[in-house]
Amino acid sequence: MKSRIGSPHETEFCHIPAGPFIYGPEECYERLDKCPPLKPRQIIDLPSFWMAKYPVTYRQWREFLEATGYNWQGQWYHIVNGWRGVFLRAFAPTDSYPDGHDELPIVDVSQADAFAYCQWLSELIGKAVTLPTEYQWEKAARGTDGRLYPWGNTPPRPEIQWQRRFPVGPETYLFSLLVRPRREWARAGWYWRNGHPLPVGSIPQNVSPYGCVDMSGNIWEWTCSLYNPDLPEFHVVKGGSWGYTIHHAKCNVRSACSVTIPSRIYRAQGTGFRVMYNE
After folding, report:
1. Are 181 and 58 in contact (CB under 8 A)?
2. What is the C-alpha separation between 134 and 227, in angstroms, rounded?
3. pLDDT by residue (tens digit) across 197-211?
């Protein structure tokens, strides 16, 4: 069956027109000891640009690796079915490319990995491809009206939200009792020990006003913006992931990932990226 998502040279882009949009108010998912002062809701004017419709997928990442021989320090992850996925981990590392995962968004990539892909894709399609700024990412995700989620202001409906309380049955009760002995809400997609990202485009409602898909709750996405001017080693990631709450999936929420700690030590399992280019 033909993949819905093409090869890198077939990357689809959505046009984001020039003009003002409502940015913020900033909210933080705090990974760091020092959060910068949060910017209030404000109007920001941006020139036009083109944002990828989808985040980069497994298939596209594999083509990049095969074409360039790039030394990726990350790992492939695969969806684990059966009792291992229930009791151990539903999204686990694997030694080789997993069959049937072509349309999953690539994760376990550093910002340097993402920029390497951008450089290669730039040569492939003849555009100056790069990562979006935080402002560009947020405008592409929410449009101009300041909505909280790509689809509007209402929290995700059940078919978007994928949320349930753990433990919900004997298997997760035993898991929580033995491994993580506390109740909590499953996060935006699924609690990470019991879930995984979805293939891109799986939720029809998860589309921005400009047509960008999966900008809320599937994976965190790299930007090229500093998280805090006083901490240049950390850059902003946006979008939340299956391992976080509905709150973190809001368009105005920001978090941080390190760009200087060696990727073999610091790499987010739930972080990927999408590309863009300026007009």
Report:
1. no
2. 9
3. 889 988 888 899 999
